[in-house]
Amino acid sequence: YYCNDCDVHLDICLLLFFFLKIRRPPRSTLSSSSAASDVYKRQAGKYLLVGTQFASMYVIDGPGSVQPILEGHFEEAGANMPELWGLDVHPTEPMFCSSGDDATLRLWSLDLGSMILMTNCAYPSRACGFSPDGTAIAVGHENGAFSVWDSMTLVPLVSFTRKRQHKVADIKYSPDGRWLAISMGQGNLVDIYDVKRGYTFVAYCDAVSSTVRRIDWSMNSRFLQCATSAYELIVFNVPDGSVNQASEMCNVTWESQSGTIGWGVQGIWADCS
């Protein structure tokens, strides 16, 4: 199907690759609506460089020889403003995961500077996070569901579980790995699941008057702090979901600080703000 001296054969190669998807690369971003946006080949060159509308680049060297050199998140035709939402770093290895509007979960290598694995999550997502031991990735979806995936193979470990109708805003495992907290964003609450009991729902935290933007766990996994769009800082006991006075939590050590409201980030705000 490919010939250095024949433009007709080159056209056939492109047609087969981008529309019929013959021998497409495994785990690539190619979909049924993929299309080439640019093609480059030197007159006497051996390789064909192809860029797609979905933020990917491939090198074609003869029939069946297609190598991805750049891949990224994308949005299917007809949608606009695709966004990457979920991002988390592996607790021990030089890699991170990402997810977003394209309904894919991706694993990236910091050493290689490239994607090493991806899977289709079926639904757009708003957050993702590694378990403390790095073996699982929890994904919070736009439709209010969450799913859990093996971090080395991206095989599903927990099928889509949906208790709420609101978009997930944040998702985090507790440092001890026992609990999974899911912020339901505009639902103004946070759900708590028991990981050791097969991700069983155990409680919800709902003493919130506005959208929960970010959640963070204490190092001892006993407290969960929530930063809201109304600039509130609310601290819950886990697992019962009762509320603590934020002023009494000033000496608590937190495993992370992703919210812009909290004792540890007072310095970013102007005096009396």
Protein described:
The structure is a single chain. The protein is mainly beta and 273 residues long. Helix content is 5%, strand content 40%. The protein contains one helix and 20 strands. The chain has a four-stranded antiparallel sheet with strand order 1-2-3-4, with no helix packed on it. A four-stranded antiparallel sheet has the order 5-6-7-8, with no helix packed on it. A four-stranded antiparallel sheet has the order 9-10-11-12, with no helix packed on it. A hairpin with a 4-residue loop joins strand 7 and strand 8. The chain is elongated, with a radius of gyration of 22 Å. The termini are far apart. The N terminus is likely disordered.
Descriptive terms for the model:
40% strand; 5% helix; 20 strands; 273 residues; 1 helix; mainly beta; disordered N terminus
Topology of helices and strands:
Blueprint (H helix, E strand, L loop, with lengths): L6 H14 L15 E5 L7 E5 L4 E4 L5 E5 L13 E6 L5 E6 L3 E6 L4 E7 L4 E6 L5 E6 L3 E6 L5 E7 L7 E4 L5 E5 L6 E5 L5 E6 L6 E6 L5 E6 L4 E5 L5 E2 L29
